[in-house]
């Protein structure tokens, strides 16, 4: 049966101003320098490297058993967390939920073979597509953390001159808005090696300062080109020019409105993912299949950041072809999905992922 319903979302993209990459971006040697310190370099560069191996120094909690996946299910003790994390869906109008050029049609069940991923709704299946740009060979590397305080600081700086005419006027951009760059990563369907830099984090925060020369986050390194830079705005423009169609999503280019809506979206999480919880540093980055728009993924990722655990995010927003990769491998698609090459654990379910990470790594 042909598509009973076709839906292409209203374009939230608009051409950017055509500005090239910022001229003040500079080049550094990326991954090799980082790997010297804490993370096993052999695990970098290959996304699936070491996923099924484990390290004798790291083991899952006693009697650990991966939980059964429950799609869209919320563990009762986590309801408030998921509701809080869902605020971004409202304030950010779904930015970070759909991959670039997303379109969908509702088709009959037998139009999509059972070995192909497709979400089933009321006896129909969703046929989802996207139009993606050139793919980077190695994951982009980003040093960052969630910072509600940082955002409050930006807004205070912005509004202070309105209250006092004697204070110099500030301009506002999405420059250091922490979640903006995560949204573009989902839209462009990029895999990213995150180096979390929570407040008081002893490892990657000083490393980023050493590499880039400034105590500022996010800080991005593209090991494919050797380019590195600060400032969400510049990172976003660089990524859409290099790995997208050159157009910055409208909701990421609205200046004050972007900052305000990102801020409101973060309020629901009350500063989670911003401060360091002492933890063991594993030799290999964990792998999290996730995307920014998912509240379930958000709560899992926050804990990775708090514990300062380096992780590769395999982005798989709606329309991502990587959904099929996970489906083919595991026989089920659901995110978040965690692969820990340090213990050999592979698991679904956000609440249990949070418990697992704390039990395995927190000191
Ligand atoms: N009980 C799961 C729910 C996870 C979930 O339902 N995730 C959604 C994304 S927000 C998903 O993977 N949906 C499957 C699909 O879109 O095909 C958890 O807490 O992790």
Describe the protein.
Strands 3-10-9-7-8-13-12-14-15 form a 9-stranded mixed β-sheet, with helices on both faces. The protein has helices at residues 31-37, 79-91, 148-163, 180-187, 204-212, 232-243, 256-267, 295-306, 322-330, 350-361; strands at residues 5-7, 13-15, 26-27, 103-108, 120-121, 124-129, 140-144, 192-196, 219-222, 227-230, 247-249, 286-290, 311-315, 337-340, 345-348. It is built from 10 helices and 15 strands. With 363 residues, it is α+β, with helices and mostly antiparallel strands. The radius of gyration is 20 Å and the shape is globular. The protein has one domain (5-361). Strand 12, helix 8 and strand 13 (311-315) form a beta-alpha-beta unit. Bound molecules: glutathione. InterPro entries: Glutathione_S-Trfase, Glutathione_S-Trfase_N, Thioredoxin-like_sf. Residues 35-67 are annotated as: Disordered.
Reconstruct the topology from this structure.
Layout: E1 5-7, E2 13-15, E3 26-27, H1 31-37, H2 79-91, E4 103-108, E5 120-121, E6 124-129, E7 140-144, H3 148-163, H4 180-187, E8 192-196, H5 204-212, E9 219-222, E10 227-230, H6 232-243, E11 247-249, H7 256-267, E12 286-290, H8 295-306, E13 311-315, H9 322-330, E14 337-340, E15 345-348, H10 350-361
Parallel strand pairs: 7-8, 12-13
Antiparallel strand pairs: 1-4, 2-11, 3-10, 4-6, 5-6, 7-9, 8-13, 9-10, 12-14, 14-15
Bound molecules: glutathione.
């Amino acid at each position: 049966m042909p598509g009973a319903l076709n839906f292409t979302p209203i374009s939230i993209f608009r051409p950017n101003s055509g500005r090239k990459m910022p001229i003040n971006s500079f080049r550094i040697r990326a991954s090799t320098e980082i790997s010297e310190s804490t993370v096993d370099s052999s695990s970098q560069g290959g996304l699936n490297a070491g996923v099924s191996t484990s390290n004798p120094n790291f083991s899952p909690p006693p009697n650990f058993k991966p939980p059964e996946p429950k799609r869209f299910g919320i563990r009762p003790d986590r309801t408030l967390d998921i509701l809080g994390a869902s605020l971004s869906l409202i304030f950010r109008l779904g930015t970070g939920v759909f991959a670039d050029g997303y379109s969908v049609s509702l088709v009959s069940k037998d139009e999509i073979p059972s070995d192909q991923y497709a979400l089933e709704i009321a006896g129909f299946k969703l046929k989802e597509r996207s139009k993606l740009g050139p793919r980077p060979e190695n994951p982009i590397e980003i040093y960052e953390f969630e910072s509600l305080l940082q955002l409050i600081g930006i807004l205070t700086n912005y509004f202070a001159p309105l209250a006092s005419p004697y204070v110099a006027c500030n301009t506002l951009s999405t420059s250091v808005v922490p979640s903006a760059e995560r949204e573009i990563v989902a839209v462009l369907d990029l895999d990213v090696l995150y180096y979390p830099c929570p407040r008081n984090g002893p490892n990657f925060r000083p490393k980023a300062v050493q590499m880039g020369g400034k105590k500022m986050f996010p800080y991005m390194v593209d090991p494919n080109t050797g380019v590195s830079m600060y400032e969400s705005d510049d990172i976003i423009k660089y990524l859409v020019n290099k790995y997208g169609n050159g157009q910055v999503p409208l909701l990421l280019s609205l200046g004050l409105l972007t900052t305000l809506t990102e801020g409101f979206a973060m309020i629901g999480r009350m500063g989670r993912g911003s401060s360091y919880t002492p933890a063991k540093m594993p030799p290999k980055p964990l792998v999290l299949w996730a995307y920014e728009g998912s509240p379930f993924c958000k709560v899992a990722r926050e804990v990775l950041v708090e514990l300062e655990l380096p992780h590769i995010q395999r982005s798989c927003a709606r329309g991502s072809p990587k959904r099929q990769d996970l489906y083919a491998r595991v026989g089920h698609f659901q995110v978040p999905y965690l692969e820990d090459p340090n213990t050999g654990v592979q698991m679904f379910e956000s609440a249990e992922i949070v418990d697992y990470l704390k039990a395995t790594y927190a000191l």
